[in-house]
Amino acid sequence: YHHPLGQSRLIPDMQSVALRYTGPVNDQRLSRAVTAVLGERFERMAPLHGADSRRLYIRGLNGGAGLETVLTALRALPGIRQVMPVFKRGNVRFTVTERFIVRFYPGTASAEINRINRDNGVEKVRQIAADTWLLAAREMDGLRAAGLYGNLGAVQWAQPNVIYLDHSIFNSNDTYYASQWAHKNTGQTVANGAADGYPQTVQGFADADMDVDEAWTAMQNQGIQPGEGILIGVIDSGIELAHPDLKSRIADPGRDFTPDNQKDGNDIQGHGTAVAGVLAAEADNGLGVAGIAPYARLLPVKINSSWGSADDAGIAEAIDYAWQFGSDVLTNSWSGTDYSQVIADALNRAKTQGRGGKGCVIVFSSGNEGHGTVSFPARLSDVIAVGASNMFDEKKNQGSRDFNRKWGGNYGAELDLVAPTLVYTTDLVGQAGFDAGDYKDTFGGTSAACPHVSATAALILSVDPALTSDQVQEILQASADKIDRYMIDAAGWNKHVGYGRVNALQAVQKALGLDGDAPSFQFDKPLSGTDTGDRSLTVNIRDESGMDEALLFYRTTYRGQVSGWKSSGPLSVSGSAYSFSIPGQQWETMVEYYFFGRDKTGREVTFPIGGDSKTAPPLPIVYHVAELNSRSYASADVPVSWENANTFYSSTLDIKDDFSIVDVNATVDISGQIQDFAVALEAPSGVAAGILQLNPGTAYSNTTTDDEAKTPITDGADPYAGSFQPDNAQWVFDGERSAGSWKLTVYDDIYFNNGGSIKNWSLELTAMKDNPVPVVSDIPGQTIDEGGSFTSIDLNAYVSDGNHADSEISWSYSGNTDLLVSIDANNLATVSPPSANWSGSETITFTASDPGAATDSDAALFTVNAQNDPPVVSDIPDQTIAEGQSFATIALDDYVSDPDNSDAEMNWTYSGNSALTVSISAQRVATITVPDSNWNGAETITFTASDPGGLSDSDGASFTVTAVNDAPVVSDISDQTIAEGQSFATIALDDYVSDPDNSDAEMNWTYSGNSALTVSISAQRVATVTVPDSNWNGAET
């Protein structure tokens, strides 16, 4: 049939039909009448949706002809108003009657509506909302009537009033507070609701919880009681009004929107009571359990009848009633209906008009099929879609560690959050509920998860009632913990757990205006493979307050030897991008790693979740460094077939080979209504994955589940031939051991009651290939004399490797200081002394590495014996100075080299000098001295260095003194005094002059200073001083 978003295909369940009587049904009379026309094909009768309707279970309806024959026969019975098939969609069973729902365009006159109804033989039942009516057709069923009205110009939309059967839309210091692991998980032992044959209790991971106790403390420190002032509308099967742990929290008896027509919303079925206990069971009253928002008030809104049915019109009216009554939060632990415009419209009114226009916070469970399609109405944008998590902080699935293999939470593009399931809560008092007693210890499904989010929304609103519904949702998403090991996108979301598992403490802190988010880590996981180099990881770490510290932790396992955890900081940081590196590893190594972050407010978190800066999380991420090979194993325990039974069917596969698993692919052939089948793969250790979950169709034909496949199974189509990503990741098996009994288990929900068969199945297990370590030995040492050469070494001769050729081995060396080493492409090593005169010993270690970085080494000693080489003396420089100067001293150490002896051991001598004087100090500094300051000339002096062994070498240098013309020295010419008339004595000037460079005869004399006296100098340099006359007297110089 058509609806505003498209069309839905109606598939009869071929097991039952729906019958509507003209008045209340007399079961005995009807049973006799049906038996009369159908005989033994009539199996049994069950309530449907009111006193005037019944559901008849009939054998042999297979095929359209058989169904039509039965429908025709039943319609002919007296008193029958209508007979319709029961339809199926997933695990939901539904039917229609003559009733349908129509929304007329606003402004359509009442007279026009009445005319349309009169012309089509339709009458009004009641008005549901503005312009929206529940109508009943006299001569046709609701499907045809809705189709007819949908084509009328005055009609905005029309749909049948679908009736949902079998409760199938429900996703199913106090005494038991210590067992409320979702509030505070210490790893305590809790029930899990597992089937027989599985452990009945588990111990989860410590702190895999919502921090509810800490949230209460944070609120009470601000004078706020958790949930006070907030009304939660519980749209469900009602609430047991007299329950001792709930009655004080009931704001109003509520209403019944089912054909039961109770005067209130009292619960006689139990589902809504269980939801209510999670929400707001009274705290600190010495009874049972404590709700997450124990001071919130509850409004029971009953949509599920005592017959286990609900209809679109009643649901829509219930939603309108809840928000119009004043509910702040609408909690809906149900889903799985087909698209219904009347429900979508009611939810939109609650979202846009509730809480005075701020909008009700509307929370829905995502569904329990475990597949990748979020159910309606949870997939609507007006609501918060909630999947399920367990006490191990995993996405709840048919293979998760809680061992409850019956169901898993739906996931997909519209999933917003996950929350705890399999929890303690309230039950109908006494024997009437799920369990004997007043409480249930394993309330499950996304029904249990949904109220955890609703109650946290109530905590947020009790902190800040002014928040809009969108702001509440933003807080819930930003404050959620990133659980499990699925990678997130830049917004912090993935399709398996949405934005994460709800955290009450962090949500409250954000509502209080404090830091309420933890660092998130977005990155691409390194892949297993042969790369032995460093693995670079660029991680986008986001936190509203900014990061204080970020670390990468890793450890390795090589052939059973486990290293300790090592940490490293980022190599670089650019904005939110942190670059880390894990050192390269050799083949046969498993690497485990996780990230740690602390923000600027001190909030710490790891990814995967559950660790800290000193303790690793329980489930780190794994990759392998190795050559990989795949090994195939097929089950011989086939076929495994079944008829109709709501139980588990298993086929085993025994594997004797024992190795660490790198990757698992499963291939299955399963026939039957696979949309009924939850298929899980379980390793010998008990670790499992729900690989194929209630996907539509009738067969898996040669279907391979592979984490690395490009197409999700959700995007496949019957019979799913080929490779697909599984519904839940198979990397849970990475690092597990292969040996033992594997199980492929199918849980048949029997909604289709036709059985099935595991025809064949096999596993492809990827393992690390053994990589024998190369063995290096007996590389010989060598000894040569100084000046000789070492023999080249063919390294191939000294290594053995079980699986690699010599050409695949790479060599390196270490330990040498002076010796030179080279290794060519043929692995020929050459060792050379640094010079012809070098002597000494060095140990060189040669290391062989195979392609997998496995290594072995061997050391060899290389010795060069010393030889006494003569010293070499050279380049002593010549010197030339001017007469009267001094020669520079000569540091003889600078002009000698001896490879065997030090400078101090040299003995120096000299020869060749005549006039020049030579001395050599103890520091081997030579001094050359001229005989006097006026000496000039040249001499060659030979310097000889002798080593202690008597070997010597010499070098000559020329020492030259150039002549200089010195000035003559005139002195001591005597003064003379005579009497007037006498004569001065002559002066022999040669007696008063000296010149080292010239003779007396070469002197040229002159005079000055006389005035009256007359001077003459003869050729023989005799001076005569004469007075002018005999009477002259006086003195002149």
Automatic annotation (TrEMBL):
GO terms for molecular function: serine-type endopeptidase activity. Residues 870-979 form the Ig-like domain. GO terms for biological process: protein processing. The keyword Protease applies. Gene3D superfamilies: Galactose-binding domain-like, Immunoglobulins, Peptidase S8/S53 domain. InterPro entries: Galactose-bd-like_sf, Ig-like_dom, Ig-like_fold, P_dom, Peptidase_S8/S53_dom, Peptidase_S8/S53_dom_sf, Peptidase_S8_Asp-AS, Peptidase_S8_His-AS. Pfam families: Big_9, P_proprotein, Peptidase_S8. The active site is at D236, H271, S447. PROSITE patterns: IG_LIKE, P_HOMO_B, SUBTILASE, SUBTILASE_ASP, SUBTILASE_HIS, SUBTILASE_SER. The keyword Transcription regulation does not apply. One of its GO terms (cellular component) is endomembrane system. PANTHER family: NEUROENDOCRINE CONVERTASE 1 (PTHR42884:SF14), PROPROTEIN CONVERTASE SUBTILISIN/KEXIN-RELATED (PTHR42884). Belongs to the peptidase S8 family. This is P/Homo B domain-containing protein.
